[in-house]
């Protein structure tokens, strides 16, 4: 009798578990899958792989180098092609990949402290090297002296610090597999060869990444070149999307799965590198952005943007409904360059005081004055508008097309300082800024406008 009762109880549990899992799986829909992404606004991008070992220089030549026919680029992750590194020499870098100072926890903590809400790393870049131990290729972390499960450690750290995580996967270009696409100036592969790469490497590796790491996002890469036109047909695009949807309904897919025709089944549009659309876009979107010119570590790329500039991009994208995915190219020993750490912490300092104006906000559909970015949200049933001043203003009196009667108060978000405003005409107010604020002496300043 007791035995029967126990079996019965067991079945009730199984049934409850099944219903629970099912109802949770069902809650993810095409309409809500990207909700977290829309609220997140700010993410960390990482370009890290064999190219990081070369740091932009090979055999006495440093990118960009016009003595090579295709050497005029800062992109250090392209060094194999642009500085014509022989395949064997490049492949042999596998034996040098040994990032003894890599610490997943410190990377993700750095991202969290900068105010970033998600993390995307190059699981496989164009060179074809897999940053995890792949079953379908030996050109991977498993063949390096390091061997450790970098992606697994990062995924765990992301969970610990509350970040979503995803993988960049170069689905079109693959310079190692005999069928993968290669740059436009190299001999082209046939469609049959590409199909072989697609079935032998691309689809199985994407499946592996899903099954092993359950990513929140995939970042695919095309940019409208000849290779995309030839190889990434709508059929292949849809096949890849279907494979991901089937195995992992929560996983977001970016628009650069097919730059020329992303279709309607992707989750967000991906701008071109460092591209900032001038206007609000109707679909969720993001800009992938660099701190220097290169994505991968380049020891002689001294073109560091200031934290101030980067905060400006973040704020401006947010006001247009977009996100900002900011890249770091870690060094071969596994550490972030000090210049990147300094900037991340400066941005983090700004975020500690001002993030309220970004997370979970919507754009404001009125025309903002030049250098002013607007966002809005409600907190505990009260409505607020945020006006971020991203550059020095020509005039310390700014006019906003909002009626005087609609406004309760205006304060500087971080200091709490009250700001005077007056009725400019029937439809707008004039905000009277202290000179220091108007000159943007203290960096990007946010005004919090409480609405009635
Ligand atoms: C480009 C480059 C690539 C980089 C990417 C990031 O597509 O080919 O090196 O990963 O942009 O946006």
CATH topology of the largest domain: TIM Barrel
Per CATH, the architecture of the largest domain is Alpha-Beta Barrel
Envelope shape = globular
CATH class of the largest domain: Alpha Beta
Strands ordered across the widest β-sheet: 7-6-5-4-1-10-9-8
Bound molecules: alpha-D-glucopyranose
Radius of gyration: 24 Å
Mean pLDDT: 94
What this model shows, in words?
The protein has 452 residues and is an alpha/beta fold. It folds into two domains: 323 residues, TIM Barrel, CATH 3.20.20; 88 residues, Sandwich (Immunoglobulin-like). It is 32% helix and 19% strand. It contains 13 helices and 18 strands. The strands form four sheets. Strands 7-6-5-4-1-10-9-8 form an eight-stranded parallel beta sheet. Strand 5, helix 8 and strand 6 form a beta-alpha-beta unit. Helix 11 packs across helix 12. The longest helix has 26 residues. It is globular.
Main attributes?
globular; 32% helix; Immunoglobulin-like; 8-stranded parallel sheet; binds alpha-D-glucopyranose; 452 residues; alpha/beta; single chain; 13 helices; TIM Barrel; 5-stranded antiparallel sheet
Blueprint (SSEs and pairs):
Elements: H1 2-27, H2 35-40, E1 42-46, H3 51-54, E2 57-58, E3 61-62, H4 79-82, H5 87-91, H6 104-113, E4 118-124, H7 150-161, E5 164-169, H8 191-213, E6 217-220, H9 226-231, H10 234-247, E7 252-253, E8 269-270, E9 285-289, H11 307-319, E10 322-328, H12 338-354, E11 362-363, E12 372-379, E13 382-389, E14 397-400, E15 407-412, E16 420-423, E17 429-432, H13 435-438, E18 445-451
Parallel strand pairs: 1-4, 1-10, 4-5, 5-6, 6-7, 8-9, 9-10
Antiparallel strand pairs: 2-3, 11-12, 12-13, 13-18, 14-17, 15-18, 16-17
Helix pairs in contact: 6-7, 8-10, 11-12
Bound molecules: alpha-D-glucopyranose.
